[in-house]
Amino acid sequence: ETGVTQTPRHLVMGMTNKKSLKCEQHLGHNAMYWYKQSAKKPLELMFVYNFKEQTENNSVPSRFSPECPNSSHLFLHLHTLQPEDSALYLCASSQEGVGGEQYFGPGTRLTVT
Amino acid sequence: RKEVEQDPGPFNVPEGATVAFNCTYSNSASQSFFWYRQDCRKEPKLLMSVYSSGNEDGRFTAQLNRASQYISLLIRDSKLSDSATYLCVVGRGNKLTFGTGTQLKVEL
């Protein structure tokens, strides 16, 4: 299935590194999301973009910086992360106004050392 | 109180069994309701939307009780391939809130 793709699939980075996660959706949707999933915790919504505009920032630390250049692409720029930021980062997309069903990419498994 | 509460399980059931999962949510203004399935180390995948009238998709039946703020999922004739974590999801606009999931293990 290639509706929502994410790269890289795995990432190991040091606390002083800068890296970016990329998400692309091929579903013609106009809303995109970043979620964080840590072990034994529910998915946590981080950011929401509707028609390229950020409409939700769920009190995410500034070391996570999203970018949405168009309705099909979403980035998450990472810098000076902490070990507790290690998690699965999931991108999702949906069609605004259509029942809220969201479709997820395979995720990037991030380890901060 | 968690916004979406589920029994984490695991539910260990034999193949062919019927199993039911329940979920409660706290926000009475919630507008949309779903069950997602998540396999180990994979992304969540939409299983089905849930409506007040109830809906069925093959072996899966979902029910919503808005008055009690309660959602259920019934799986009949369980298959080994049904083994996964089932996530109860509640939405308002395009903001979804996920439960921690209920783990199901179907055994021979």
Your description of this structure?
Helix content of chain A is 0%, strand content 57%. Chain A has no helices and eleven strands. In chain A, the strands form two sheets. In chain A, strands 2, 4, 5, 6, 9, 10 and 11 form a seven-stranded mixed β-sheet that branches. With 108 residues, chain B is an all-beta fold. Chain B is built from no helices and eleven strands. The mean pLDDT of chain B is 94. The interface between A and B is medium-sized, with 23 and 22 residues.
Reading the helices and strands of chain A in chain order gives: EEEEEEEEEEE
Distance between the termini of chain A: 31 Å
Please trace the helix and strand order of chain B, writing H or E for each element: EEEEEEEEEEE
Mean pLDDT of chain B: 94
Low-pLDDT segments, ≥5 res of chain A: none
Backbone CA Rg of chain A: 13 Å
Largest interface between protein chains, with number of residues from each side: A-B, 23 and 22 residues
Instruction: Determine the oligomeric state from the structure.
Output: heterodimer
Number of strands of chain A: 11
Main structural class of chain B: mainly beta
Determine the number of helices of chain B (DSSP H or I, runs of at least 4 residues).
0
- SSE class of chain A: mainly beta
Low-confidence stretches of chain B: none
What proportion of the residues of chain B form beta strands (DSSP E)?
Answer: over 45%
Characterize the largest beta sheet of chain A: strand count, sense, and whether it forms a barrel: 7 strands, mixed
Task: Outline the secondary-structure elements.
The complex is a heterodimer of chains A (113) and B (108).
Chain A: E1 4-7, E2 10-13, E3 18-25, E4 31-37, E5 44-50, E6 53-57, E7 64-70, E8 73-79, E9 87-94, E10 103-104, E11 108-112
Parallel strand pairs in A: 2-11
Antiparallel strand pairs in A: 1-3, 3-8, 4-5, 4-9, 5-6, 7-8, 9-10, 9-11
Chain B: E1 4-6, E2 11-14, E3 19-25, E4 32-38, E5 44-49, E6 55-57, E7 60-65, E8 70-75, E9 84-92, E10 95-98, E11 102-107
Parallel strand pairs in B: 2-11
Antiparallel strand pairs in B: 1-3, 3-8, 4-5, 4-9, 6-7, 7-8, 9-10, 9-11
